[in-house]
Amino acid sequence: MTHFAAIGAGFSGAVIARTLVEAGHRVTVFDARTHVAGNCHTERDPESGVMVHKYGPHIFHTDNERVWEYLNQYTEFMPYTNRVKTISGGKVYSLPINLLTINQFFGEAMSPAEARAFIEKQADLNIEDPQTFEEQALRFVGKDLYEAFFKGYTQKQWGCSPTQLPASILKRLPVRFNYDDNYFFHKYQGMPREGYTAIVEKILDHPNISVRLSTPFSRSQVKDYDHVFYSGPVDGYFNYELGRLGYRTLDFKEIRTDGDYQGCAVMNYADESVPYTRIAEHKHFSPWEEHDKTVCFAEYSRTCESGDIPYYPVRLAQEQTMLRDYIKKARAEPGVSFVGRLGTYRYLDMDVTIAEAMHLAESFLELTAKNNPVPAFFNEPI
Ligand SMILES: Cc1cc2nc3c(=O)[nH]c(=O)nc-3n(C[C@H](O)[C@H](O)[C@H](O)COP(=O)(O)OP(=O)(O)OC[C@H]3O[C@@H](n4cnc5c(N)ncnc54)[C@H](O)[C@@H]3O)c2cc1C
């Protein structure tokens, strides 16, 4: 029986391990942390009993039937629709910007067609070929909505002016001309009844999977396994010898009180003068539960330094150059494939992570059955 290693007990490592053991192999899963589920980890807060999303709010949403069915083997999904509010200039608005937001912001009662015509008038049509995030936003929605809802929030989230970010971040018109405030368009959306960690524990619950928590894995151990799937940071694998790929990290400031703190799960703060980007009140992610006490976390975004948890890859021109060099090194490294959000330095939603993990483990089995070489990347980082 061949023996593989999956580094990281997040969705990437767990789904790969499960697929391989079901094909008759043995897998050891390593994680440097004390728990499984990676950044999707959830645990009950001992004081309030609330299920807390330890590394920030996670809402499951997908159009992928296979991923949806896969997860439903391991959990019961409870109905949950992500509806976000934002405070701008001391007033509360509905997000994503929709007809309610527009009518409240401009103090009007416009119909969809009237609002569309109105926003078209606001748009700065002098900008013919938007190059930056700011130009793109001004071109789409005009100065007033841009300054109220995008400028400060984007500055806080990315730690730089929207004039320094590429236009591609804002791909399409970020406005809805109806009252739909469901954040996601996907067919399936929900929250696992017992949290994400319970799902990952069940995926990993197989006699041929051994899980080693609190155990960092290093490059020198690769030779001990028939193949390694590495879902840790690609630059970390090489001990940052070419430098650190840029990430944003988050600091969470805890807020505790009785009852209901803000009346919704996520309240964004659009103004630059407020130092945090949003407050998440975690009891509202489990609306089927009842808790007298509440716990919330205000999120502060900043540059990720050595020792911080990497959250969002920055991926600007400078990082892309360094990434290309790490990709070259990774391709020359025998016996290891780089997977998942950190291994490929991409932002990936959970459903994409799971779909990629299933596909790559299946491709791996096909390749090795035919004695074909295994690539360093099944999903290209660039
Ligand atoms: C703030 C935030 C909010 C998000 N919200 C959503 C959401 O609402 N919906 C959604 O679909 N997705 C969301 N995501 C994305 C989601 O977190 C990812 O899709 C998912 O975590 C990717 O899983 P992964 O296994 O690739 O990586 P991770 O979950 O990061 O797992 C990697 C694991 O590898 C371990 N590791 C790293 N290096 C080593 C090493 N050398 N040795 C041993 N272990 C190591 C780490 O400890 C970690 O546990 C969000 C992401 C962020 C940052």
From TrEMBL:
Gene coding for it: glf
The protein's name: UDP-galactopyranose mutase
UniProt-listed Gene3D superfamilies: NAD(P)-binding Rossmann-like Domain
Highest rank taxon of the organism: Bacteria
Single annotated GO MF: UDP-galactopyranose mutase activity
UniProt cross-references to SUPFAM superfamilies, sorted A to Z: FAD-linked reductases, C-terminal domain, Nucleotide-binding domain
Record-listed E.C. numbers: 5.4.99.9
Needed co-factor(s): FAD
PANTHER family xrefs: UDP-GALACTOPYRANOSE MUTASE
Domain UDP-galactopyranose mutase C-terminal: 148-347
Family named by the database record: Belongs to the UDP-galactopyranose/dTDP-fucopyranose mutase family.
Keywords: FAD, Flavoprotein, Isomerase
InterPro entries associated with the record: UDP-GALP_mutase, UDP-GalPyranose_mutase_C
